[in-house]
Recover the amino acids of this structure.
């Protein structure tokens, strides 16, 4: 038996953890700068920094109006929305995987995305006045909240929410929502259909500054709250009864995790569409790197999720220029093989 | 600290899992909960460690009702080794054991040197220091139970609850674990399946049958041949153990 009293089985632990976080944070800043610089019109990174400095501090060299418009009005909000969506969906995935202790749990497992899609597609195709008044984003948010409420109502059993019932109810509601969405698509005219498809597969293309406010606030609040609950989340990941015995208020924590992950997902889906696989894959990848301790999993998931989606968005704009590929297609193309590799490696990882 | 249970009742959808059970566990003693499968042993323990809210009755620890304490304070009074531990996560042994410090920590408070010392000392107590850097799920069943006991000890609580801690262990690991538990100077309440172990390792026994208290007292008082025959349907006798001289229960099929 090797006597490894202070060793850790995780890839990145102990003294290697702080530098790893610093590297990831640096990678995020770098990828944001590069993503803003690359596009149909190339803007050198130096000029990007000038524009950002001018707009943030009022100082720096005054950029020409066209560069100002490309960098500040179009690309920066888009790239920041990609970063926010990646961070937020990853955090939502962390919450849900701790909550239902199911490795397949992702932010859409409770039908959030199906509800949001239905709302958005209704607004885009039918122009039903009540729905149209909300706009696509508003309708998507209303749809996701509605589907969440239905799922929770179906899954609650004398005041307790059961993980397995939640998943079953979520799957059922998702099928229902997707069926109606599919029907609406068949009725849509070709130009609407393209917009619908793009929305369903996720896109940050149309992002503007006002789109960022609500997801940013939601992500910030959830991050702070969840970081204070990181230890109880660790306990919960080892079992409800075990957590109760360790002095965790299990029911309250479960409700907190549900509310946090659902709101995060709803807020992001309503501005960026159904970006799949990020919330499922990023938390798994992070646990492989730093281990399952949520005090590390939460911050690293935020950073890695943000970097991942910024880079994926960059790919969607550059792979097939001048066309754009929906972001959800690229996340799935990259995410699925990774996830399968993960599944095959799982037994080994647990040893 | 004393554990006092008064008239504990748990009903789930008209089915009584526990009906009006009362018992007292004294500091420095091991109280064994015995009874056939489904007699309410785990249900009773779950009410004490706040995994299940009873529908009636009271659980007092040191004269405070546990369901009126905050969950954190309750976690500083009782620690538990449960049966439900999820293995599908990559926690290391050291991380699992360090979770025992949870009820002693504030929001965002980091692990201190003394937390690490406590973890190390408790792992040493159960003879598992060597495994600190291992992945918990990769240990054998007996090793895992010892690690979970170390975690419970890390909570530094006066009351320790164990839910069938010897299930699925080989006989050597069973006896090792029970010896460890008996040597602790805590208020121990243990749900235990094996009547022989119950007699050998518990100071007092509480016999549950179909959710009701059937008998309570010393092993000899509770496990009379008549009671064992009635509840478990087997013949039995308590005899001195040929090797240790301690009381020992032997059984034989009915008839």
């Amino acid at each position: 038996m090797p006597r490894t009293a202070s060793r850790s089985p995780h890839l990145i632990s102990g003294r290697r953890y702080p530098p790893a976080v610093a590297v990831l944070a640096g990678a995020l800043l770098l990828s944001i700068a590069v993503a803003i610089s690359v596009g149909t019109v190339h803007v050198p990174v130096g000029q990007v920094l000038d524009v950002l400095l001018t707009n943030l501090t009022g100082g720096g060299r005054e950029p020409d109006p066209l560069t100002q418009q490309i960098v500040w009005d179009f690309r920066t909000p888009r790239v920041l929305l990609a970063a926010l969506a990646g961070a937020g969906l990853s955090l939502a995935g962390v919450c849900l995987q701790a909550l239902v202790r199911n490795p397949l749990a992702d932010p859409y497992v409770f039908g959030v995305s199906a509800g949001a899609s239905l709302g958005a597609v209704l607004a885009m195709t039918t122009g039903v006045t009540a729905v149209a008044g909300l706009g696509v984003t508003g309708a998507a948010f209303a749809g996701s909240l509605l589907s969440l409420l239905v799922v929770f109502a179906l899954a609650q059993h004398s005041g307790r929410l059961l993980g397995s019932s939640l998943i079953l109810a979520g799957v059922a509601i998702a099928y229902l929502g997707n069926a109606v969405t599919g029907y609406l698509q068949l009725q849509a005219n070709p130009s609407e259909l393209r917009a619908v498809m793009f929305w369903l597969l996720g896109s940050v293309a149309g992002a503007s500054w006002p789109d960022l406010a609500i997801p940013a606030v939601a992500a910030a609040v959830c991050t702070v709250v969840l970081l204070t609950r990181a230890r109880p989340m660790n306990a919960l990941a080892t079992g409800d009864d075990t957590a109760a015995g360790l002095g965790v208020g299990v029911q309250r924590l479960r409700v907190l995790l549900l509310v946090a992950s659902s709101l995060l997902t709803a807020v992001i889906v309503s501005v960026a569409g159904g970006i799949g696989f990020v919330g499922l894959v990023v938390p798994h990848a992070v646990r492989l790197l730093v281990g399952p301790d949520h005090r590390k999993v939460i911050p690293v998931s935020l950073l890695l999720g943000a970097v991942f989606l910024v880079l994926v968005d960059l790919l969607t704009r550059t792979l097939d220029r001048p066309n754009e590929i929906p972001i959800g297609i690229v996340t799935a193309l990259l995410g699925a093989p990774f996830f399968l590799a993960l599944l095959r490696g799982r037994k080994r990882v647990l040893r | 600290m004393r554990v006092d249970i008064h008239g504990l009742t748990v009903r789930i959808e008209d089915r009584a899992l526990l009906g009006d059970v009362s018992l007292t566990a004294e500091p420095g003693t091991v109280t064994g909960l015995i009874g056939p499968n489904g007699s309410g042993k785990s249900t009773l323990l779950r009410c004490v460690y706040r995994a299940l809210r009873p529908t009636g009755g009271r659980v007092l620890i040191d004269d405070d009702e546990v369901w009126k304490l905050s969950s954190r304070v309750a976690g500083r009074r009782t620690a538990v080794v449960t049966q439900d531990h999820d293995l599908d996560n990559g926690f290391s042994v050291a991380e699992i054991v360090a979770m025992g410090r949870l009820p002693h920590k504030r929001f965002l408070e980091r692990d201190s040197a003394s937390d690490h010392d406590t973890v190390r000392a408790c792992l040493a107590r159960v003879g598992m220091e060597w495994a600190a850097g291992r992945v918990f799920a990769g240990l054998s069943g007996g090793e895992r139970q010892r690690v979970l006991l170390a975690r419970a000890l890390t909570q530094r609580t006066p009351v320790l609850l164990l839910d069938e801690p010897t299930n699925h262990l080989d006989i050597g690991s069973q006896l090792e674990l029970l010896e460890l538990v008996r040597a602790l100077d805590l208020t121990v309440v243990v749900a235990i399946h094996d009547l022989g172990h119950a007699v050998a390792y518990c100071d007092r026994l509480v016999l549950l049958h179909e959710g009701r208290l059937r008998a309570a007292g010393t092993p000899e008082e509770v496990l009379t041949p008549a009671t064992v025959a009635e509840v478990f349907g087997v013949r039995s006798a308590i005899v001195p153990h040929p090797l240790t001289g301690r009381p020992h229960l032997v059984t034989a099929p009915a008839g």
Notes: Confidence is low (pLDDT under 50) at residues 1-5 of chain A. Chain A has 15 helices and two strands. The CA atoms of residues 90 and 279 of chain A lie 4 Å apart. The first strand of chain A starts at residue 156 and ends at 157.
